[in-house]
Design brief:
2 domains; six-stranded antiparallel β-barrel; 14 strands
Length: 309
């Protein structure tokens, strides 16, 4: 799969050889997977190029920055998750005020969608200024321009459509098991191990402090069972919070790999979140906190063993 930043890599001479889907695809969840699968199958049947189009940054970060959501997946993570799908290319479009104000006809023309092209979109897709162009309008445009349109119905969980918003809510609440069902895989964090304040060593449980992209959504504060996927799935304890026992600071993510004494400083560490075992708490002393961390690590070990990790 090619990663494109402009539509120059899309064939312009024959629109019939183009099948396209457009969306934010944050999380690349099960609903997104259904759209991409339909796109790839449709393109293969037509001998066409299957292209997914997404945006960077998230459109809300431009339209209403104060309401910009934390991201389930960065652009690099999206590309990594989409690569095995059979897509020919992922086109990442810089979302600007100019793109925001383009009408659907202009944007589709820029994407080289024309007579004989094919669109595959999710049931709730909107585009254009103020999200004014919905599936109905795109169907009308299809009749005018001559492109085909397939609409993929929602994939549901607990009787409601799976959406990035629902998954963000579950992650923010610490319910990573519910998020995993909707994502179709565990929610993950990946970052460079950077220096911390050394409190982990003082508490006899050294941790790897993860430097994460600013836009990445952190799960709700607390202690989690995790799997260090970049270390052959070793069981790990993940702490997310502000260290209230030492005076609240910035929210951070710290990982303790069970039974590993190696120095991970400078390495890139990836962890899958499995379940939360408790929320964040304030303790009366460092000694009380150290005792609780010992209990947490035993709990993590027990839960990891029960899950066959």
């Amino acid at each position: 799969m090619k990663l494109l930043r402009t539509p120059e890599g899309i064939p312009a001479d024959d629109p019939e050889l183009l099948s396209v889907t457009v969306g934010n695809f944050d999380g690349v969840h099960r609903g997104h997977a259904a759209v991409i699968e339909e796109l790839v199958e449709s393109a293969r049947s037509r001998g066409a190029m299957a292209v997914a189009v997404t945006f960077e940054p998230h459109p809300i970060a431009v339209v209403a920055p104060e309401h910009a959501p934390g991201l389930l997946t960065t652009t690099d993570e999206k590309a990594e998750l989409m690569a095995p799908s059979g897509l020919a290319a992922l086109l990442v479009v810089e979302f600007t005020p100019e793109v925001m104000n383009e009408n659907a006809r202009e944007f589709l023309s820029w994407l080289k969608v024309g007579h004989g092209s094919h669109l595959v979109l999710g049931y709730d897709f909107h585009m254009g200024k103020g999200r004014c162009c919905d599936i109905g309008r795109l169907s009308e445009l299809g009749a005018e321009i001559g492109y085909g349109l397939d609409v993929v119905p929602p994939v549901e969980h607990d009787g409601l459509p799976i959406s990035s918003t629902r998954i963000r809510e579950s992650v923010a609440e610490g319910d990573v098991e519910d998020a995993q069902v909707m994502l179709g895989r565990p929610y993950s964090l990946r970052g460079k191990v950077v220096g911390g304040q050394g409190a982990g060593k003082l508490l006899r449980s050294p941790t790897a402090n993860l430097e994460l992209p600013e836009e990445k959504l952190l799960p709700g504060d607390g202690v989690y069972v995790a799997s260090a996927t970049s270390l052959d799935g070793r069981p790990a304890a993940l702490y997310v919070g502000t260290r209230p026992t030492f005076g609240r600071g910035e929210r951070r993510a710290e990982v303790h790999i069970l039974d590993l004494e190696a120095d991970l400083y400078g390495a890139t560490l990836a962890v899958d979140l499995v379940e939360r075992i408790r929320g964040d708490e304030t303790f009366g002393s460092a000694e009380e906190l150290a005792a609780r961390i010992g209990e947490d690590l035993e709990r993590v070990r027990e839960r990891a063993q029960a899950r066959g990790m």
